[in-house]
Amino acid sequence: MTGTTVLNLQTHLLLPVKDPPGSQELSFRLKEQESSSLLKRCKNLEEFKQVHSHILKLGVSCDSFVAGNLVATCVLSAWGSMDYACSIFEQIEEPGSFVCNTMIKGHVKALNWDQALLVYCEMLERGVRPDNFTYPIVLKACAWLVAIEEGKQIHGHVFKLGLENDVFVQNSLISMYGKCGKVQLSRSVFEQLMDQKSVASWSAIISAHASLGLWSECLKLYGDMRREGLRAEESTLVSVLSACTHLGALNLGRCCHGFLLRNISALNVIVETSLIDMYVKCGCLEKGLSLFQKMIKKNRLSYTVVICGLAIHGHGREALELYSEMFREGLKPDDAVHVSVLSACNHAGLVEEGLQCFKRMKYEHEIQPKIEHYGCLVDLMGRAGRLEEAMQLINSMPIRPNDVIWRSLLSASRVHKNPGIGEIAAEKLFQLNMHNPSDYVVLSNLYAQAQRWDNVARIRTEMASKGLTQTPGSSLVEVRREVHKFVSQDMSHPQCKRIYEMIHQMEWQLRFEGYSADTTQVLLDVDEEEKRERLKYHSQKLAIAFALIHTSQGSPIRIVRNLRMCSDCHTYTKFISIIYQRQITVRDRNRFHHFEDGICSCRDYW
Question: Which of 7, 466, 495, 498 is most exposed by smallest CB count within 10 Å?
Protein backbone atom coordinates (compact mmCIF):
# COMPACT_ATOMS: atom_id res chain seq x y z
CA MET A 1 0.00 0.00 0.00
CA THR A 2 1.39 3.38 -0.94
CA GLY A 3 1.83 6.24 1.46
CA THR A 4 -1.13 8.19 0.05
CA THR A 5 -3.71 5.42 0.35
CA VAL A 6 -5.21 6.38 3.66
CA LEU A 7 -5.83 9.97 2.67
CA ASN A 8 -7.03 9.04 -0.84
CA LEU A 9 -9.62 6.70 0.66
CA GLN A 10 -10.69 9.44 3.08
CA THR A 11 -11.10 12.39 0.67
CA HIS A 12 -14.61 13.01 1.93
CA LEU A 13 -13.15 13.35 5.43
CA LEU A 14 -10.57 15.87 4.34
CA LEU A 15 -13.18 18.38 3.21
CA PRO A 16 -13.66 21.23 5.71
CA VAL A 17 -16.21 20.16 8.25
CA LYS A 18 -18.89 22.78 8.75
CA ASP A 19 -19.88 23.36 12.33
CA PRO A 20 -23.56 22.62 12.95
CA PRO A 21 -25.36 25.82 13.80
CA GLY A 22 -24.69 26.89 17.40
CA SER A 23 -22.55 23.84 18.20
CA GLN A 24 -18.78 24.42 18.21
CA GLU A 25 -18.28 21.54 20.65
CA LEU A 26 -19.99 19.12 18.30
CA SER A 27 -17.69 20.27 15.49
CA PHE A 28 -14.66 19.57 17.67
CA ARG A 29 -15.93 16.08 18.51
CA LEU A 30 -16.42 15.32 14.83
CA LYS A 31 -12.81 16.33 14.17
CA GLU A 32 -11.72 14.05 17.02
CA GLN A 33 -13.63 11.16 15.46
CA GLU A 34 -12.14 11.92 12.06
CA SER A 35 -8.62 11.91 13.54
CA SER A 36 -9.26 8.63 15.36
CA SER A 37 -10.66 7.00 12.22
CA LEU A 38 -7.69 8.05 10.09
CA LEU A 39 -5.14 6.84 12.70
CA LYS A 40 -6.76 3.41 12.85
CA ARG A 41 -6.31 3.01 9.09
CA CYS A 42 -2.56 3.71 9.05
CA LYS A 43 -0.52 0.79 7.76
CA ASN A 44 2.96 2.30 7.81
CA LEU A 45 4.93 5.28 9.07
CA GLU A 46 4.56 7.27 5.85
CA GLU A 47 0.76 7.12 6.05
CA PHE A 48 0.95 8.05 9.74
CA LYS A 49 3.00 11.16 8.97
CA GLN A 50 0.41 12.32 6.45
CA VAL A 51 -2.41 11.79 8.95
CA HIS A 52 -0.38 13.66 11.58
CA SER A 53 -0.03 16.59 9.18
CA HIS A 54 -3.76 16.59 8.54
CA ILE A 55 -4.53 16.54 12.30
CA LEU A 56 -2.32 19.60 12.73
CA LYS A 57 -4.38 21.38 10.03
CA LEU A 58 -7.59 20.41 11.81
CA GLY A 59 -6.25 22.13 14.94
CA VAL A 60 -7.02 19.28 17.33
CA SER A 61 -3.47 18.04 18.01
CA CYS A 62 -3.43 19.74 21.44
CA ASP A 63 -6.50 17.82 22.57
CA SER A 64 -5.47 15.20 25.16
CA PHE A 65 -7.54 12.45 23.49
CA VAL A 66 -6.10 13.10 20.03
CA ALA A 67 -2.54 13.57 21.37
CA GLY A 68 -2.83 10.28 23.24
CA ASN A 69 -4.05 8.51 20.11
CA LEU A 70 -1.22 9.99 18.05
CA VAL A 71 1.50 8.90 20.48
CA ALA A 72 -0.05 5.45 21.12
CA THR A 73 -0.36 4.70 17.40
CA CYS A 74 3.21 5.76 16.67
CA VAL A 75 4.66 3.93 19.69
CA LEU A 76 2.72 0.67 19.81
CA SER A 77 2.23 -0.14 16.12
CA ALA A 78 4.53 -2.76 14.57
CA TRP A 79 5.74 -0.13 12.07
CA GLY A 80 6.05 2.60 14.75
CA SER A 81 9.01 4.89 15.36
CA MET A 82 10.14 5.99 18.81
CA ASP A 83 12.12 8.86 17.29
CA TYR A 84 9.02 10.25 15.60
CA ALA A 85 6.95 9.60 18.74
CA CYS A 86 9.49 11.63 20.76
CA SER A 87 9.16 14.54 18.35
CA ILE A 88 5.36 14.49 18.83
CA PHE A 89 5.73 14.21 22.61
CA GLU A 90 8.02 17.25 22.74
CA GLN A 91 5.32 19.37 21.04
CA ILE A 92 2.65 18.50 23.62
CA GLU A 93 2.55 21.33 26.15
CA GLU A 94 0.50 19.55 28.82
CA PRO A 95 0.79 15.78 28.39
CA GLY A 96 -1.48 13.70 30.58
CA SER A 97 -0.59 10.47 32.40
CA PHE A 98 -1.81 8.35 29.45
CA VAL A 99 0.62 10.00 27.01
CA CYS A 100 3.53 9.76 29.44
CA ASN A 101 2.73 6.13 30.25
CA THR A 102 2.61 5.34 26.54
CA MET A 103 6.02 6.93 25.97
CA ILE A 104 7.51 4.99 28.89
CA LYS A 105 5.99 1.77 27.53
CA GLY A 106 7.39 2.53 24.08
CA HIS A 107 10.92 3.00 25.42
CA VAL A 108 10.66 -0.23 27.41
CA LYS A 109 9.39 -2.05 24.31
CA ALA A 110 12.36 -0.65 22.34
CA LEU A 111 14.74 -1.69 25.16
CA ASN A 112 15.60 1.95 25.87
CA TRP A 113 15.52 1.46 29.62
CA ASP A 114 17.36 4.69 30.49
CA GLN A 115 15.02 6.75 28.32
CA ALA A 116 12.00 5.20 30.04
CA LEU A 117 13.27 6.44 33.41
CA LEU A 118 14.04 9.88 31.96
CA VAL A 119 10.44 10.20 30.72
CA TYR A 120 9.25 9.24 34.22
CA CYS A 121 11.45 11.99 35.71
CA GLU A 122 10.15 14.48 33.13
CA MET A 123 6.62 13.43 34.02
CA LEU A 124 7.24 14.36 37.66
CA GLU A 125 8.93 17.65 36.71
CA ARG A 126 5.92 18.65 34.59
CA GLY A 127 3.60 17.94 37.49
CA VAL A 128 1.88 14.99 35.80
CA ARG A 129 0.60 12.60 38.47
CA PRO A 130 1.69 8.98 37.87
CA ASP A 131 -0.98 6.31 38.27
CA ASN A 132 -1.17 2.56 38.76
CA PHE A 133 -0.42 2.05 35.04
CA THR A 134 2.83 4.03 35.29
CA TYR A 135 4.66 1.99 37.88
CA PRO A 136 4.59 -1.53 36.40
CA ILE A 137 6.41 -0.31 33.26
CA VAL A 138 8.81 2.02 35.13
CA LEU A 139 9.73 -0.79 37.53
CA LYS A 140 10.28 -3.11 34.59
CA ALA A 141 12.88 -0.64 33.27
CA CYS A 142 14.57 -0.60 36.71
CA ALA A 143 14.65 -4.40 36.71
CA TRP A 144 16.36 -4.60 33.32
CA LEU A 145 18.88 -1.95 34.35
CA VAL A 146 19.36 -3.62 37.76
CA ALA A 147 18.86 -0.07 39.05
CA ILE A 148 18.11 -0.97 42.66
CA GLU A 149 18.58 2.55 44.09
CA GLU A 150 16.21 4.09 41.53
CA GLY A 151 13.81 1.21 42.19
CA LYS A 152 13.81 1.97 45.91
CA GLN A 153 13.12 5.66 45.24
CA ILE A 154 10.21 4.73 42.98
CA HIS A 155 8.93 2.41 45.72
CA GLY A 156 8.87 5.51 47.95
CA HIS A 157 6.84 7.39 45.33
CA VAL A 158 4.34 4.51 45.31
CA PHE A 159 3.77 5.02 49.05
CA LYS A 160 3.45 8.80 48.71
CA LEU A 161 0.76 8.39 46.05
CA GLY A 162 -1.15 5.85 48.12
CA LEU A 163 -0.66 2.98 45.66
CA GLU A 164 0.91 0.59 48.17
CA ASN A 165 -2.22 -1.59 48.16
CA ASP A 166 -2.48 -1.85 44.38
CA VAL A 167 -1.80 -5.51 43.54
CA PHE A 168 -0.44 -4.78 40.04
CA VAL A 169 2.07 -2.26 41.38
CA GLN A 170 3.08 -4.56 44.24
CA ASN A 171 3.61 -7.49 41.84
CA SER A 172 5.91 -5.28 39.78
CA LEU A 173 7.87 -4.36 42.91
CA ILE A 174 8.28 -8.06 43.78
CA SER A 175 9.58 -8.76 40.28
CA MET A 176 11.89 -5.72 40.23
CA TYR A 177 13.52 -6.55 43.57
CA GLY A 178 13.93 -10.16 42.50
CA LYS A 179 15.66 -9.29 39.23
CA CYS A 180 17.93 -6.90 41.14
CA GLY A 181 18.98 -9.77 43.40
CA LYS A 182 17.19 -8.43 46.50
CA VAL A 183 14.99 -11.42 47.25
CA GLN A 184 14.40 -10.40 50.88
CA LEU A 185 12.83 -7.14 49.70
CA SER A 186 10.70 -9.18 47.27
CA ARG A 187 9.55 -11.35 50.17
CA SER A 188 8.77 -8.26 52.26
CA VAL A 189 6.50 -6.77 49.56
CA PHE A 190 4.92 -10.19 48.91
CA GLU A 191 4.08 -10.74 52.57
CA GLN A 192 2.53 -7.25 52.84
CA LEU A 193 -0.10 -8.31 50.29
CA MET A 194 -1.67 -10.56 52.94
CA ASP A 195 -4.94 -11.92 51.49
CA GLN A 196 -4.59 -9.96 48.24
CA LYS A 197 -2.03 -12.31 46.67
CA SER A 198 -2.97 -13.11 43.08
CA VAL A 199 -1.60 -15.77 40.71
CA ALA A 200 0.67 -13.04 39.31
CA SER A 201 1.96 -12.29 42.84
CA TRP A 202 2.95 -15.92 43.35
CA SER A 203 4.46 -16.06 39.88
CA ALA A 204 6.57 -12.96 40.62
CA ILE A 205 7.91 -14.27 43.95
CA ILE A 206 8.67 -17.73 42.51
CA SER A 207 10.46 -16.11 39.56
CA ALA A 208 12.43 -13.88 41.97
CA HIS A 209 13.78 -16.95 43.77
CA ALA A 210 14.44 -18.77 40.49
CA SER A 211 16.52 -15.87 39.13
CA LEU A 212 18.89 -16.30 42.11
CA GLY A 213 19.04 -20.09 41.85
CA LEU A 214 17.09 -20.63 45.10
CA TRP A 215 15.52 -23.78 43.72
CA SER A 216 14.34 -25.43 46.95
CA GLU A 217 12.56 -22.21 47.95
CA CYS A 218 10.90 -22.14 44.50
CA LEU A 219 9.37 -25.56 45.07
CA LYS A 220 8.28 -24.67 48.61
CA LEU A 221 6.54 -21.50 47.35
CA TYR A 222 4.89 -23.47 44.56
CA GLY A 223 3.55 -25.92 47.17
CA ASP A 224 2.23 -23.02 49.26
CA MET A 225 0.54 -21.57 46.17
CA ARG A 226 -1.19 -24.88 45.40
CA ARG A 227 -2.39 -25.14 49.01
CA GLU A 228 -3.98 -21.70 48.59
CA GLY A 229 -6.06 -23.24 45.80
CA LEU A 230 -4.52 -21.12 43.04
CA ARG A 231 -3.74 -22.46 39.56
CA ALA A 232 -0.27 -21.64 38.23
CA GLU A 233 0.31 -19.88 34.92
CA GLU A 234 2.64 -21.17 32.20
CA SER A 235 5.36 -18.66 33.19
CA THR A 236 5.23 -19.88 36.80
CA LEU A 237 5.53 -23.49 35.73
CA VAL A 238 8.59 -22.65 33.63
CA SER A 239 10.29 -21.43 36.86
CA VAL A 240 9.09 -24.53 38.71
CA LEU A 241 10.39 -26.78 35.93
CA SER A 242 13.76 -25.02 36.16
CA ALA A 243 13.81 -25.77 39.89
CA CYS A 244 12.96 -29.43 39.23
CA THR A 245 15.72 -29.53 36.62
CA HIS A 246 18.40 -28.19 38.97
CA LEU A 247 17.30 -30.31 41.94
CA GLY A 248 16.69 -33.46 39.92
CA ALA A 249 13.10 -33.55 41.24
CA LEU A 250 11.68 -35.74 38.45
CA ASN A 251 8.41 -36.71 40.12
CA LEU A 252 7.43 -33.10 40.78
CA GLY A 253 8.47 -32.23 37.22
CA ARG A 254 6.15 -34.96 35.96
CA CYS A 255 3.31 -33.49 38.04
CA CYS A 256 3.91 -30.09 36.40
CA HIS A 257 3.85 -31.74 32.99
CA GLY A 258 0.54 -33.44 33.81
CA PHE A 259 -0.93 -30.14 35.02
CA LEU A 260 0.10 -28.45 31.76
CA LEU A 261 -1.47 -31.21 29.65
CA ARG A 262 -4.73 -31.06 31.60
CA ASN A 263 -5.10 -27.28 31.59
CA ILE A 264 -3.44 -25.94 28.45
CA SER A 265 -4.52 -27.10 25.01
CA ALA A 266 -1.33 -26.19 23.13
CA LEU A 267 2.03 -25.69 24.81
CA ASN A 268 4.29 -22.97 23.42
CA VAL A 269 7.87 -23.63 22.32
CA ILE A 270 9.36 -22.19 25.54
CA VAL A 271 7.31 -24.51 27.78
CA GLU A 272 7.97 -27.54 25.56
CA THR A 273 11.71 -26.82 25.60
CA SER A 274 11.63 -26.39 29.40
CA LEU A 275 9.95 -29.79 29.72
CA ILE A 276 12.56 -31.45 27.50
CA ASP A 277 15.34 -29.80 29.52
CA MET A 278 13.78 -31.03 32.76
CA TYR A 279 13.47 -34.63 31.58
CA VAL A 280 16.96 -34.93 30.10
CA LYS A 281 18.61 -33.30 33.14
CA CYS A 282 16.61 -35.45 35.55
CA GLY A 283 17.94 -38.58 33.85
CA CYS A 284 15.00 -39.42 31.55
CA LEU A 285 16.70 -38.92 28.21
CA GLU A 286 14.24 -41.15 26.33
CA LYS A 287 11.25 -39.11 27.52
CA GLY A 288 13.00 -35.86 26.56
CA LEU A 289 13.79 -37.22 23.08
CA SER A 290 10.18 -38.41 22.68
CA LEU A 291 8.84 -34.91 23.46
CA PHE A 292 11.38 -33.39 21.07
CA GLN A 293 10.29 -35.67 18.22
CA LYS A 294 6.63 -34.74 18.82
CA MET A 295 7.27 -30.98 18.69
CA ILE A 296 5.45 -29.40 15.77
CA LYS A 297 7.74 -26.40 15.68
CA LYS A 298 11.39 -26.78 16.71
CA ASN A 299 13.77 -23.86 17.04
CA ARG A 300 17.48 -23.49 17.60
CA LEU A 301 17.08 -23.50 21.39
CA SER A 302 15.16 -26.79 21.25
CA TYR A 303 18.01 -28.41 19.32
CA THR A 304 20.59 -26.91 21.69
CA VAL A 305 18.79 -28.36 24.76
CA VAL A 306 18.58 -31.85 23.23
CA ILE A 307 22.19 -31.83 21.98
CA CYS A 308 23.28 -30.71 25.46
CA GLY A 309 21.15 -33.49 26.96
CA LEU A 310 22.74 -36.10 24.73
CA ALA A 311 26.14 -34.68 25.69
CA ILE A 312 25.71 -35.03 29.45
CA HIS A 313 24.37 -38.56 28.98
CA GLY A 314 27.48 -39.51 27.03
CA HIS A 315 25.76 -39.99 23.64
CA GLY A 316 28.31 -38.09 21.58
CA ARG A 317 27.61 -39.69 18.21
CA GLU A 318 23.84 -39.17 18.52
CA ALA A 319 24.54 -35.50 19.34
CA LEU A 320 26.61 -35.19 16.15
CA GLU A 321 23.75 -36.75 14.14
CA LEU A 322 21.28 -34.21 15.58
CA TYR A 323 23.75 -31.45 14.75
CA SER A 324 23.67 -32.59 11.11
CA GLU A 325 19.85 -32.75 11.22
CA MET A 326 19.73 -29.03 12.05
CA PHE A 327 21.25 -28.25 8.67
CA ARG A 328 18.74 -30.49 6.89
CA GLU A 329 15.93 -28.61 8.67
CA GLY A 330 17.35 -25.28 7.49
CA LEU A 331 18.46 -24.14 10.96
CA LYS A 332 21.94 -22.65 11.12
CA PRO A 333 23.69 -23.59 14.39
CA ASP A 334 25.02 -20.66 16.40
CA ASP A 335 27.94 -20.49 18.83
CA ALA A 336 25.82 -21.94 21.68
CA VAL A 337 24.96 -25.04 19.64
CA HIS A 338 28.64 -25.58 18.90
CA VAL A 339 29.47 -25.41 22.62
CA SER A 340 26.97 -28.25 23.19
CA VAL A 341 28.37 -30.30 20.29
CA LEU A 342 31.95 -29.88 21.52
CA SER A 343 30.78 -30.82 25.01
CA ALA A 344 29.18 -33.99 23.56
CA CYS A 345 32.49 -34.95 21.93
CA ASN A 346 34.20 -34.21 25.24
CA HIS A 347 32.01 -36.52 27.34
CA ALA A 348 32.20 -39.33 24.78
CA GLY A 349 35.96 -39.05 24.26
CA LEU A 350 35.55 -38.19 20.55
CA VAL A 351 38.71 -36.12 20.24
CA GLU A 352 39.13 -36.12 16.46
CA GLU A 353 35.41 -35.45 15.88
CA GLY A 354 35.59 -32.54 18.30
CA LEU A 355 38.58 -31.01 16.52
CA GLN A 356 36.79 -31.43 13.18
CA CYS A 357 33.65 -29.73 14.55
CA PHE A 358 35.77 -26.82 15.83
CA LYS A 359 37.36 -26.35 12.39
CA ARG A 360 34.00 -26.59 10.65
CA MET A 361 32.53 -23.94 12.96
CA LYS A 362 35.45 -21.59 12.39
CA TYR A 363 36.04 -21.93 8.65
CA GLU A 364 32.81 -23.28 7.13
CA HIS A 365 30.25 -21.43 9.28
CA GLU A 366 32.54 -18.45 9.93
CA ILE A 367 31.74 -18.37 13.65
CA GLN A 368 34.56 -16.79 15.60
CA PRO A 369 35.47 -19.15 18.48
CA LYS A 370 34.79 -17.79 21.96
CA ILE A 371 36.48 -18.68 25.22
CA GLU A 372 33.78 -21.34 25.83
CA HIS A 373 34.74 -23.19 22.63
CA TYR A 374 38.42 -23.17 23.53
CA GLY A 375 37.48 -24.33 27.02
CA CYS A 376 35.67 -27.36 25.56
CA LEU A 377 38.70 -28.21 23.40
CA VAL A 378 41.14 -27.96 26.30
CA ASP A 379 38.86 -30.16 28.44
CA LEU A 380 38.46 -32.62 25.54
CA MET A 381 42.22 -33.04 25.16
CA GLY A 382 42.82 -33.03 28.90
CA ARG A 383 40.33 -35.82 29.61
CA ALA A 384 41.92 -37.89 26.85
CA GLY A 385 45.33 -37.45 28.51
CA ARG A 386 46.72 -35.27 25.74
CA LEU A 387 47.98 -32.66 28.19
CA GLU A 388 50.91 -31.42 26.09
CA GLU A 389 48.59 -30.74 23.13
CA ALA A 390 46.15 -28.98 25.44
CA MET A 391 49.01 -26.80 26.68
CA GLN A 392 50.03 -25.97 23.09
CA LEU A 393 46.43 -25.01 22.25
CA ILE A 394 46.26 -22.65 25.23
CA ASN A 395 49.53 -20.98 24.23
CA SER A 396 48.27 -20.47 20.64
CA MET A 397 44.84 -19.08 21.56
CA PRO A 398 44.07 -15.57 20.22
CA ILE A 399 42.06 -14.96 23.40
CA ARG A 400 43.62 -14.63 26.84
CA PRO A 401 42.92 -17.88 28.76
CA ASN A 402 40.51 -17.45 31.65
CA ASP A 403 40.17 -19.34 34.92
CA VAL A 404 37.92 -22.02 33.38
CA ILE A 405 40.63 -22.95 30.84
CA TRP A 406 43.36 -23.29 33.48
CA ARG A 407 41.01 -25.09 35.88
CA SER A 408 40.22 -27.72 33.22
CA LEU A 409 43.94 -28.28 32.67
CA LEU A 410 44.58 -28.50 36.43
CA SER A 411 41.78 -31.06 36.85
CA ALA A 412 43.09 -33.14 33.92
CA SER A 413 46.58 -33.01 35.42
CA ARG A 414 45.23 -34.50 38.65
CA VAL A 415 43.32 -37.25 36.82
CA HIS A 416 46.37 -38.19 34.75
CA LYS A 417 48.84 -37.57 37.63
CA ASN A 418 50.98 -34.91 35.94
CA PRO A 419 52.22 -32.53 38.69
CA GLY A 420 54.40 -30.55 36.24
CA ILE A 421 51.57 -29.25 34.06
CA GLY A 422 49.28 -29.10 37.10
CA GLU A 423 51.62 -26.68 38.85
CA ILE A 424 51.72 -24.44 35.74
CA ALA A 425 47.90 -24.37 35.57
CA ALA A 426 47.62 -23.65 39.31
CA GLU A 427 50.17 -20.83 39.11
CA LYS A 428 48.19 -19.21 36.27
CA LEU A 429 45.00 -19.47 38.35
CA PHE A 430 46.67 -17.83 41.33
CA GLN A 431 48.00 -15.04 39.06
CA LEU A 432 44.41 -14.34 38.03
CA ASN A 433 43.62 -13.82 41.74
CA MET A 434 40.98 -16.53 41.57
CA HIS A 435 40.32 -17.26 45.24
CA ASN A 436 38.50 -20.49 44.43
CA PRO A 437 38.94 -23.08 47.20
CA SER A 438 38.56 -25.97 44.73
CA ASP A 439 41.76 -24.89 42.88
CA TYR A 440 43.77 -25.22 46.09
CA VAL A 441 42.08 -28.55 46.90
CA VAL A 442 42.82 -30.04 43.45
CA LEU A 443 46.48 -28.92 43.65
CA SER A 444 46.69 -30.32 47.18
CA ASN A 445 45.24 -33.63 45.96
CA LEU A 446 47.72 -33.67 43.06
CA TYR A 447 50.58 -33.36 45.55
CA ALA A 448 48.97 -35.99 47.80
CA GLN A 449 48.84 -38.46 44.88
CA ALA A 450 52.60 -37.97 44.53
CA GLN A 451 52.95 -38.27 48.34
CA ARG A 452 54.49 -34.80 48.52
CA TRP A 453 53.06 -34.17 51.99
CA ASP A 454 55.08 -31.02 52.65
CA ASN A 455 53.48 -29.40 49.60
CA VAL A 456 50.06 -30.61 50.76
CA ALA A 457 50.61 -28.97 54.16
CA ARG A 458 51.78 -25.73 52.52
CA ILE A 459 48.67 -25.51 50.30
CA ARG A 460 46.32 -26.31 53.18
CA THR A 461 48.02 -23.68 55.38
CA GLU A 462 47.71 -21.12 52.59
CA MET A 463 44.00 -21.91 52.27
CA ALA A 464 43.50 -21.40 55.99
CA SER A 465 45.40 -18.11 56.02
CA LYS A 466 43.19 -16.80 53.20
CA GLY A 467 40.00 -17.96 54.89
CA LEU A 468 39.14 -20.36 52.06
CA THR A 469 36.99 -23.38 52.89
CA GLN A 470 36.31 -26.36 50.69
CA THR A 471 32.76 -26.84 49.39
CA PRO A 472 31.51 -30.05 51.02
CA GLY A 473 30.34 -32.79 48.70
CA SER A 474 26.56 -33.17 48.78
CA SER A 475 23.97 -35.43 47.16
CA LEU A 476 20.25 -34.85 46.62
CA VAL A 477 17.73 -37.67 46.30
CA GLU A 478 13.98 -37.35 45.72
CA VAL A 479 11.76 -39.70 47.71
CA ARG A 480 7.96 -39.37 47.73
CA ARG A 481 8.14 -35.96 46.01
CA GLU A 482 10.43 -34.56 48.68
CA VAL A 483 14.09 -33.75 48.02
CA HIS A 484 16.55 -34.86 50.74
CA LYS A 485 20.10 -33.55 50.97
CA PHE A 486 23.10 -35.40 52.37
CA VAL A 487 26.72 -34.34 52.92
CA SER A 488 29.70 -36.59 53.57
CA GLN A 489 29.85 -37.98 57.12
CA ASP A 490 26.31 -36.54 57.63
CA MET A 491 24.85 -37.09 61.10
CA SER A 492 22.14 -34.41 60.91
CA HIS A 493 19.35 -36.31 59.15
CA PRO A 494 16.42 -37.29 61.42
CA GLN A 495 16.78 -40.91 60.26
CA CYS A 496 20.57 -40.93 60.66
CA LYS A 497 20.68 -44.10 62.78
CA ARG A 498 18.60 -46.09 60.32
CA ILE A 499 20.67 -44.85 57.35
CA TYR A 500 23.95 -45.83 59.02
CA GLU A 501 22.55 -49.29 59.82
CA MET A 502 21.68 -49.64 56.14
CA ILE A 503 25.24 -48.59 55.19
CA HIS A 504 26.63 -51.40 57.38
CA GLN A 505 24.25 -53.91 55.77
CA MET A 506 25.32 -52.76 52.31
CA GLU A 507 29.02 -53.01 53.26
CA TRP A 508 28.53 -56.59 54.46
CA GLN A 509 26.91 -57.64 51.16
CA LEU A 510 29.49 -55.73 49.08
CA ARG A 511 32.34 -57.77 50.57
CA PHE A 512 30.77 -60.99 49.27
CA GLU A 513 30.57 -59.48 45.77
CA GLY A 514 34.29 -58.65 45.81
CA TYR A 515 34.15 -54.90 46.45
CA SER A 516 37.24 -53.34 47.99
CA ALA A 517 37.34 -49.65 48.95
CA ASP A 518 39.68 -47.57 46.79
CA THR A 519 41.61 -45.84 49.57
CA THR A 520 43.75 -43.95 47.05
CA GLN A 521 40.77 -41.57 46.83
CA VAL A 522 41.40 -40.41 50.42
CA LEU A 523 44.25 -37.99 49.91
CA LEU A 524 45.21 -37.63 53.55
CA ASP A 525 48.26 -38.90 55.41
CA VAL A 526 46.26 -41.31 57.63
CA ASP A 527 46.16 -45.09 58.05
CA GLU A 528 44.16 -47.43 55.79
CA GLU A 529 41.41 -48.08 58.36
CA GLU A 530 40.62 -44.36 58.72
CA LYS A 531 40.61 -43.99 54.94
CA ARG A 532 38.03 -46.79 54.64
CA GLU A 533 35.87 -45.15 57.31
CA ARG A 534 35.95 -41.81 55.49
CA LEU A 535 34.97 -43.45 52.19
CA LYS A 536 32.11 -45.39 53.81
CA TYR A 537 30.02 -42.28 54.52
CA HIS A 538 30.38 -40.30 51.29
CA SER A 539 27.22 -38.32 50.53
CA GLN A 540 26.29 -40.45 47.50
CA LYS A 541 26.38 -43.63 49.59
CA LEU A 542 24.17 -42.06 52.28
CA ALA A 543 21.67 -40.97 49.60
CA ILE A 544 21.59 -44.48 48.09
CA ALA A 545 21.04 -46.01 51.54
CA PHE A 546 18.16 -43.62 52.26
CA ALA A 547 16.56 -44.40 48.88
CA LEU A 548 16.88 -48.17 49.40
CA ILE A 549 15.09 -47.83 52.74
CA HIS A 550 12.20 -45.71 51.42
CA THR A 551 11.55 -46.98 47.89
CA SER A 552 10.02 -50.23 46.70
CA GLN A 553 12.04 -53.13 45.34
CA GLY A 554 13.02 -52.60 41.71
CA SER A 555 12.15 -48.89 41.56
CA PRO A 556 14.85 -46.59 40.10
CA ILE A 557 16.99 -44.30 42.25
CA ARG A 558 18.02 -40.83 41.04
CA ILE A 559 20.72 -38.77 42.71
CA VAL A 560 22.16 -35.32 41.99
CA ARG A 561 25.68 -34.47 43.19
CA ASN A 562 27.34 -31.06 43.38
CA LEU A 563 30.85 -32.41 42.70
CA ARG A 564 32.49 -34.88 40.33
CA MET A 565 31.98 -38.50 41.38
CA CYS A 566 35.06 -40.19 42.86
CA SER A 567 36.16 -43.55 41.44
CA ASP A 568 35.32 -45.36 44.71
CA CYS A 569 31.67 -44.16 44.67
CA HIS A 570 31.56 -45.15 40.99
CA THR A 571 32.69 -48.71 41.69
CA TYR A 572 30.52 -48.92 44.83
CA THR A 573 27.38 -47.90 42.90
CA LYS A 574 28.06 -50.46 40.15
CA PHE A 575 28.07 -53.23 42.79
CA ILE A 576 24.93 -51.88 44.52
CA SER A 577 23.05 -51.97 41.18
CA ILE A 578 23.78 -55.72 41.01
CA ILE A 579 23.10 -56.59 44.65
CA TYR A 580 19.78 -54.71 44.94
CA GLN A 581 18.73 -55.05 41.29
CA ARG A 582 18.19 -51.29 40.90
CA GLN A 583 18.70 -48.79 38.12
CA ILE A 584 20.66 -45.95 39.72
CA THR A 585 21.08 -42.64 37.91
CA VAL A 586 23.62 -40.16 39.26
CA ARG A 587 24.08 -36.66 37.89
CA ASP A 588 27.37 -35.20 38.99
CA ARG A 589 28.82 -31.78 38.19
CA ASN A 590 29.76 -32.84 34.66
CA ARG A 591 27.45 -35.57 33.37
CA PHE A 592 25.04 -38.46 33.98
CA HIS A 593 25.96 -41.96 35.06
CA HIS A 594 23.35 -44.70 34.51
CA PHE A 595 24.16 -47.80 36.57
CA GLU A 596 22.46 -51.12 35.82
CA ASP A 597 23.60 -54.73 36.34
CA GLY A 598 27.06 -53.55 37.35
CA ILE A 599 27.68 -51.45 34.25
CA CYS A 600 27.80 -47.65 33.93
CA SER A 601 26.74 -45.78 30.79
CA CYS A 602 29.93 -43.67 30.92
CA ARG A 603 31.99 -46.81 30.16
CA ASP A 604 34.33 -45.64 32.96
CA TYR A 605 35.26 -42.51 30.97
CA TRP A 606 34.46 -39.40 32.98
Answer: 466
Which residues, at least 6 apart from 344, have a Cβ–Cβ distance to it below 8 Å? 307, 308, 310, 311, 315, 316, 319, 320, 350
474-479 β-sheet, strand order = 482-487, 474-479, 557-561, 584-587, 592-596, 599-600
> Do the beta carbons of residue 318 and residue 310 sit within 8 Å?
yes
Note the pLDDT of residue 99.
92
- C-alpha dist (Å) from residue 355 to 341, 343, 345, 544: 11, 12, 9, 38
d(CA 243, CA 550): 23
Cα atoms found within 13 Å of the Cα of residue 400, Cβ hemisphere only: 6
| DSSP codes of every residue in 537-563 | T-HHHHHHHHHHHHS-TT--EEEEESS
pLDDT of residue 61: 64
Least Cα distance to 79 among 121, 51, 113 occurs for: 51
pLDDT single digits (tens) 117-175: 999 999 999 999 999 999 999 999 999 999 999 999 999 999 999 998 899 999 999 99
Q: Which of 135, 91, 141 is nearest to 115 (CA)?
A: 141
Q: Which residues of 263-284 are buried (b: 16+ CB within 10 A; e: fewer)?
A: eeeebeeebbbbbbbbbbbbbb
Helices 437-449, 403-415: axis angle to 10 degrees equals 20
Low-confidence ranges of the chain (pLDDT < 70): 1-29, 60-62, 521-526
